[in-house]
Every structure is written in structure tokens, then in C-alpha cells.
Write a structure and sequence with these properties.
hydrolase activity; about 30% helix; hydrolase; NUDIX hydrolase; NUDIX_hydrolase_dom; globular; NUDIX_hydrolase-like_dom_sf
């Protein structure tokens, strides 16, 4: 499966309206979503941001239109003849101080059990009249690091490193975090996972691995996010 990687120096964001959906597609979407929830009751139909379109304003300036939807919107991918908007997510390359990249494995209760990926998550729409801009996106990436790995990174310390376009046209905004020692990363992850279990919740991530190269990444059993190999390959080639 082909994954496109783009270098972006500036990201411009514009809100757009959700395209109208034929009633029969909406009904089929809701049936698919309800079946998915019965199979996995932890699924939550919360607000998220989808990608409404991309337009290059300059070789390194990308205009991205975004649309407010909820998670059930993506059930349209399983409705024959229907069209779902591409998803929009942030993730983070968290390096170690010896040049490895942290990969994380999704817990069994998630929508992608056992999948190896970068720490991150879907982009959430802004609240209370706030803007969705580059600063807000970096803030969401920093929050994902804190919630999933227990790593406190300031938003201004995260650099938009590459934009990916992958399966279903999904757009990933990949940030680069400051390098940290392995012992710091493992201790922080163990602490945040233990805190979740104390609260009676299963952590979203149930394991981490630190890899130098795509060859080491290939040794991780289970499915991999489509962008993971290209991102690790790019990072290892940049060192």
C-alpha cells in the first residue's frame, strides 16, 4: 500500500461544512456503527475532525480544510457506494537519545487491537470559539504524548516534521519531539499505564518498543499502521 509523505513548512487551516449525506447512506452508516458498538462497547461516538480537502498554495505551504464529524462518520467506509471523508490525526515521533524511535501497541479493547503505531490520535474540533491552527494541533499532539506515554512536552517544542497520506486518504500530521533517554520513556509509560489500571481502566496502549530501523520494526508481531514503516525509514535515514 502506497503512503505519501510531504514536507510542509506552513499549514493553513479552514473549516468547511460536512457534505450532505443521502438518507439511505445515513441509515446504513448508523446500522454499521450500532453493530460495531455491540461488538466493542468501549467505542464512543465523540466529536472529531475529518479532512475536507488539501490544496498546495506553494511547494511547502499546504491549505487543509477540516470538517466537524463524529466517529460514526467513518462507518461509511463499510457502506457500499457511500463516501467517507478522510480522517485527520496527529502523531509523534518520540526519539531516544541514541536515535531510536518509539512504537506503541494498541490495547485489545481499542478499535485497532494489537496494532503498532506512533503515539497519537484523532484531531478534535476546537471548543468555545477557539481556533484550530498549527499551535492548537501541536497542543493536541503534546496532549497525546502526556496521556498515552506520560511524557510532558511543551507544544512549542514539537515540530511538524512530515504530513502523511495513507489508507482511505487519511491525513496524518507527524510531529517530532525532543529526544529522551530510554529509561525515562519506559518509566513514564509504566507509570501512566499503572495509573490507568488503578482507576479500573485498560490503558489505550499496552506495550512500547524502541527501534533503530525498519528491519527492527518488521520484527514486531502484529499489524502495523500504514505510515509506521515509512516514518521510521525516513527518521533512520535522516540521522
Amino acid at each position: 500500500m502506497g503512503i505519501d509523505l510531504f514536507d510542509v513548512e506552513q499549514l493553513l487551516l479552514t473549516e468547511a461544512a460536512e457534505p450532505p449525506l443521502p438518507p439511505q447512506d445515513a441509515e446504513a452508516r448508523d446500522r454499521v456503527w450500532d453493530m460495531a458498538v455491540r461488538a466493542n462497547p468501549s467505542l464512543f461516538d465523540g466529536p472529531v475532525v475529518a479532512c475536507g480537502g488539501l490544496k498546495w498554495m506553494d511547494p511547502c505551504i499546504l491549505r487543509l480544510s477540516w470538517v466537524r464529524v463524529t466517529y460514526r462518520h467513518y462507518a461509511l467506509r463499510r457502506v457500499p457506494g457511500a463516501t467517507a471523508l478522510p480522517s485527520l490525526f496527529v502523531n509523534v515521533v518520540q526519539p531516544t537519545d541514541d536515535g531510536r524511535v518509539l512504537a506503541a501497541r494498541m490495547s485489545p479493547s481499542t478499535a485497532a487491537p494489537g496494532r503498532w503505531q506512533l503515539p497519537g490520535g484523532s484531531v478534535e474540533p476546537p471548543r468555545d470559539g477557539a481556533a484550530l491552527d498549527e499551535s492548537a494541533l501541536a497542543g493536541q499532539a503534546a496532549r497525546e504524548l502526556a496521556e498515552e506515554l506520560g511524557i510532558d512536552a511543551a507544544a512549542e517544542d514539537l515540530k511538524l516534521w512530515v504530513v502523511t497520506c495513507g489508507e482511505n486518504g487519511s491525513i496524518g500530521l507527524t510531529y517530532l519531539a525532543p529526544a529522551l533517554p530510554e529509561v525515562t520513556l519506559r518509566a513514564a509509560f509504566a507509570m501512566v499505564a499503572a495509573a490507568e489500571r488503578v482507576q479500573g481502566r485498560e490503558p489505550e496502549l499496552d506495550g512500547i518498543a524502541l527501534v533503530h530501523s525498519p528491519d527492527e520494526l518488521a520484527g514486531l508481531a502484529g499489524p502495523h499502521a500504514d505510515y509506521l514503516d515509512p516514518i521510521v525509514r525516513r527518521f533512520s535515514g535522516c540521522r
